[in-house]
Specification:
The chain is of the alpha+beta class. The protein has a five-stranded mixed sheet, sandwiched between helices. A four-stranded mixed sheet has the order 1-2-6-5. Helix 2 (110-123) packs antiparallel against helix 3 and helix 11 (304-315) packs antiparallel against helix 12 (324-339). The chain is elongated. It is 47% helix and 20% strand. It contains 16 helices and 13 strands. Bound molecules: zinc ion (ZN). Residues 50, 52-53, 55, 89, 91-92 line the site of zinc ion (ZN).
Amino acid sequence: MKEIENELHRHYALLLGVESPWTVSDVKLDLAVKKVEIALQWMRGNQVPCPDCGKLCAIADHAPERTWRHLDTMQFETRIRARVPRCQCPEHGIKTIRMPWAEPGSRFTMLFEHFAIDVLLASRSFTQAAELLRVDWDTLQRIMERAVARGLKQRTLDGLAHVGIDEKSFGSGQSFISLLADLDQSRVLEVVEGCDQDAGQALWASLPEERRARIVAVALDMSPSFIAATRASVPQAALVHDKFHVARHLNEAVDKVRRQENKELLEQGDETLKGSRQLWLFNPVNFSDEQAAAFERLKYSGLKVARAWAIKELFCKLWQYVYEGPARAFFKKWFGWATRSKLKPVIKAARMIKRHLENILTYLRHPITNAVTEGLNSKIQSIKSNARGFRSFENYRIRILFFCGKLKLHPL
Ligand SMILES: [Zn+2]
């Protein structure tokens, strides 16, 4: 009987990957509830290595018994149970020694955490992952927090040169978050609450000073708060106003012209512009035949919105210039046309672009945009919509870094 027991203990030791001086001292199988509990014991002498300096020290005592959830074995929920020795280091005092199966402070073995991270990455839904792993939400959140902390600790920022700083709405759209992204590696580096200058500064402060000093160019929108924060934190970097943000301002101008003109036309019983909103905003390449035909008619209608649209379209040529001189000459011509258009929203947008022209032309030397973070946004949105019971900004930050940080999340 004793021999069979020893054999069973050896079998579980192998399964768990525990090696001397740890040994399996007991295995409890509960067939009714399909659980197995494996007791481990430290077997070697009375000296243990200090977790801080590695020096062999006397055993002070044993920590109270704890359990760790492990990967299921044959569909049996499996737990490890042990009293871990504490060493008496002359330099570091009384310390719990490192366990080969778990990270300090975790209630799970490393193998379980590894698996949990894979499940989370694969399922992208908290509910599904929690069900598969048979853990609750808080537990899962803590596994994620630990994974992100682990990843941030190991992250290298070597060669970081092009970054983007961008804002997103958060929660029900009432509040905002700001993101710092590595544009070369398409990863989110940090997330903070708010989108004011303090938020911008907090993002920059998350990078070590010697890293900040090597930033070459920054993609950002034309908001004064991000401009001020970036100038103060990375004075050597070129500011590049994101071309999609610039395009958005022009699109909004076209839309304003359309709304106003549509209203005027409807008052005269003219429905020419009714339902045409998308035609002026979307890329004609994606139009259906019907839409394309309708748009051909409107484009040459001599309407104000058609003029606004043509001005917006022409502006896009700016991005294709290679040299600054011709680009400036082009802009001058475009600006003259836009400001003579008598279309107030267009004139306003053109003046805004002119005010920021220097940091728009930087695009010719540093063709970067925040499209990376736009892409991340859809990923983040899907996290958000899946995140039922989603509580605080901090949880959100952890999720963004978990899914979009390209971190080494696993403990092994
Ligand atoms: Zn020590």
